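User: two proteins, same treatment. go.

Assistant:
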Amino acid sequence: MASLEHLRLKQILKRKNPYLFKAKNILTAQGFVESILDAHLSSQEEGIFGDFLEELAIFICHKVYGGRKSTAEGIDLEFEKNGNRYIVSIKSGPSWGNSQQIMRMKDNFKKAKRILRSNANIRNVIAINGCCYGRDDNPDKGDYIKLCGQRFWEFISGDESLYTELIEPIGHRAKEKNDIFNQNYSNVINKFTAEFAKEYCGADGAILWEKIVIQNSGKRKNLSLSY
């Protein structure tokens, strides 16, 4: 809702791929506005909800095993169980990063292990990549263990049913906010549609795709560059 309140139509037009929306054969101002707004909100939701699930996992682990937010770079959670110290990097789902991002996580694990073993004299440190949803039936990745979905929630709580029990309270709290959000969303759709029709539609009502592309990708000033 905060994102909607501060959003401007031209901001979204500059961030989104105009060729993609043309390829979808969108013919109406409202259809275009809904498409770019939904794409914007979808990217917002991923980040917001990923942060929420990370906080929820740390909270649950704290209640069960005394887990805590880690101060180590790239590590989200630390706790002890069965004589082991676990360092956990929490991600939303199993397909969360490219090879460089995975390499960075592995480097963070190595650094955190080295610090713990030298400063705290802890020998058995186990690195975990925890994913809040999804499945990976080959958890042993050599340098770390990847636990997804049910395996992850059971690992931090000791409860194999927790992953299904979470869904109801999350839905209940979301329902309380839906009516307010839907009204705000509808207002933005109406406002942006009127603005879009005025700025980016011709006298016959057709979308002026060339004007949208210029707004998105055109040069703002000439630069003297040698390539």
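Protein 2:
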Amino acid sequence: MAISPENVRRRLRAEKRFRFYGVAALLSAASALVFLVSTIVSSGHTGFYRTTLKLEFDLDPQRLGIETPYTADTLRDGHYYTAVKHTLYALFPEVTSRAQKRELSKILSPGAALDLRQYVIDHPGQIGQAVSLEVPIASDFDQLYKGNLPRTGRHTRLSEAQMAWFDNLVERGLIEYRFNPGFFTGSDSRYPELAGIGGAITGSLFTLLVCFVLSFPLGIAASLYLEEFAPDNRLTRIIEANINNLAAVPSIIFGLLGLAVLLGFFGLPRGTPLVGGMVLALMTLPTIIISCRSSIRAVSPGVRQGAMALGASPVQVVFHQVLPAALPGTLTGTIIGMAQALGETAPLLMIGMVAFIASVPASPLDSSAALPVQIYLWAESAERGFVEKTAAAIIVIMSFLILMNILAVIIRSRTQTKVE
């Protein structure tokens, strides 16, 4: 049957429309991604910096309220907050009333006294001398200097006098704006200018370590058994169906399982990376098994046949030939599963990794938060300073996820080259 020219033109128009729809869908997805990333970066890049006030302190032991001998215990009990306030008052001799001094002192962060105390403890030989230190300022003034807090309108929380005093400090060159390494090394705080993600990062690393140690060997062992040694019967098919179903189970179900079994029945410590890693291992295990089984199936039958022809036993064929050939896909699936576990929040909330932890955990048995949980906690806070901290933490976790995916590609390419 001959095709008319009109039918040909109609098909060509339909093909052009299909290509247009495909390009439009790609551009829409790319635009949405660019908008999301740019919004997060624009909101969070200031979170990696902090604003400080440069003050000249007279470390007079009488004014600081410290006594000899200068040990860590005696130096810790000094009147550092009073010393910091009086040093600030000295910059504004015109401020005399108690109400004005109270408003002026709000420029300082509670961390200012902590920094002064830590300096005195670390440098007892400087007692009795004048030193220059940069101390943190309160979150509202930090946000004002960064341009995140309006100077007028109902959203500003500062009085005109406070803004005038702060502007005076800026004009005198006493306000410094620097990169904040404490954001990566410090732990959570109720004050935005002092909060950091060091404790959350450490907790996430401990959690992922426990997850990897449990899920990777178990996943490979289960995959090898199901593909190479298990008989083809009803029990095996039921196990395979359950593994596939578990990969689609919502993560909060695994959290409920950890809450009921690991915490309720076995009595493991609540809110620790150990329990969090065990729960995430249960969630990641189906992904590793599925990816490993797919990689094992993709191994050429000639590899098995050649090894068997040379006299290798079935176990030797599996561990010396099949497993190395399936390792690239297995590692890729494992890293992707670990990246998914890194971003999970719901199961960690269920096992108690949502508490306020003001210290960096030293082991998987210490109470800890995780990076996604820390983001969740900061996002709930009403303080404006936590908005940029939340976005900055999201940038960090996105960077981790990108690095893990790049690592998966690199490992896959290198292991494939070695196998070939």
